[in-house]
Design brief:
Blueprint: H1 3-40, H2 50-56, H3 59-76, H4 78-84, H5 95-102, H6 104-127, H7 132-162, H8 185-213, H9 219-270, H10 285-314
Helix pairs in contact: 1-7, 2-7, 3-6, 5-6, 6-7, 7-8, 7-9, 8-9
């Protein structure tokens, strides 16, 4: 490979890695902001909030866990990063590297979600002896809202960006030849419904937790509690709208791009350009479709060569 081309390719791969890092960091910060906002809603109604005060001490914990998550991610992806970001070294393309390439989105998602689970569990355990309602609210906010939304955003955003790099790891073979995580189209289509169901569960648990405190409160405190329920439901509605937009920009565009690329290649083949090929960017149905399309076009190419040779022979 030419030195100048190699340098440009190395810089391009470095930019892709930096974008993935920004996606993961931005998603976790957005999740932390949503958790802070969820817990702070009571402060708009009451002067003091045990939930807000309890959460104030978990800010450093969330930041610490995010840092730990990045460190774990760097360790687990070290063979992949070494091969991907150093194209000049000619390192062997092992099945381990290929498997890590296919599982890139999943590993990033699981690490982030595990950190949110730990943060939510520690924060919940620290206040459960003081208030069961406060503990349940913290658990819902961190494990039920911030964690899953962060995980979904990371998975589909990283997948859409990283899928363009997958063909680099399979110059001759196919992604389906390597045993790795596979998210089928049916499961992808179930994700929007899962998000809606998850938010409904969180909304219900939040209402139940606050309703548990309602009978023992004074009339003024009861009115404040109703306002808190209303604000949190409106907040979860906003989260649902935001999640729908983000899923459209990530999951929706991923599927739409695959279909549009297939349509373009089919038009090229119809026009007689049999050198058209579909990039095999995943091990799901779209990847299998791309591999089958390429095999079909290669067969057409061979038939065209045979036809031309036969025509020359007859002539």
């Amino acid at each position: 490979m030419d030195a100048e081309i190699l340098t440009r390719e190395k810089r391009r791969r470095k930019r892709v890695s930096q974008k993935i890092t920004l996606i993961i960091l931005g998603a976790n910060l957005a999740g932390a902001f949503s958790a802070v906002l969820f817990f702070s809603l009571a402060g708009y109604v009451r002067d003091t909030s045990s939930v807000g005060q309890s959460f104030a001490g978990t800010g450093n914990l969330i930041i610490l866990l995010i840092v730990i998550g990045f460190m774990l991610g760097n360790l687990s992806f070290k063979p992949l990063d070494r091969w991907y970001e150093r194209p000049e070294t000619d390192l062997p393309l092992t099945p381990q590297v290929q498997r890590l390439a296919l599982n890139n989105s999943l590993h990033s998602t699981l690490i982030s979600f595990a950190m949110w689970m730990i943060a939510g569990s520690i924060s919940t355990a620290s206040v459960i002896s003081e208030s069961v309602g406060a503990a349940l609210t913290i658990f819902m906010g961190m494990v039920g809202v911030a964690g899953p939304m962060t995980a979904l955003l990371i998975y589909f955003a990283v997948e859409r960006l990283w899928s363009r790099e997958v063909p680099l790891f399979f110059p001759t073979g196919q992604p389906n030849d390597v045993h790795a995580f596979r998210l089928s189209m049916r499961r992808r289509l179930f994700v929007p419904s899962l998000v809606g169901l998850m938010l409904m569960v969180v909304m219900t648990l939040n209402t139940v937790a606050l309703a548990y405190e309602y009978p023992a409160l004074a009339p003024q405190a009861q009115a404040e509690l109703i306002q808190i329920v209303l604000y949190r439901q409106l907040f979860l509605l906003g989260i649902a709208v935001l999640a729908a937009i983000l899923l459209t920009l990530t999951l929706g565009r991923y599927m739409a791009d695959a279909v549009e690329t297939l349509q373009q290649c089919m038009a090229d083949v119809q026009a007689g350009r049999l050198e058209a090929r579909l990039p095999v960017t995943s091990n799901d149905e779209f990847g299998a479709l791309a591999a089958g399309f390429n095999a079909m076009v290669e067969g057409l190419q061979q038939e065209e060569v045979v036809r031309r040779l036969f025509s020359l022979y007859v002539t």
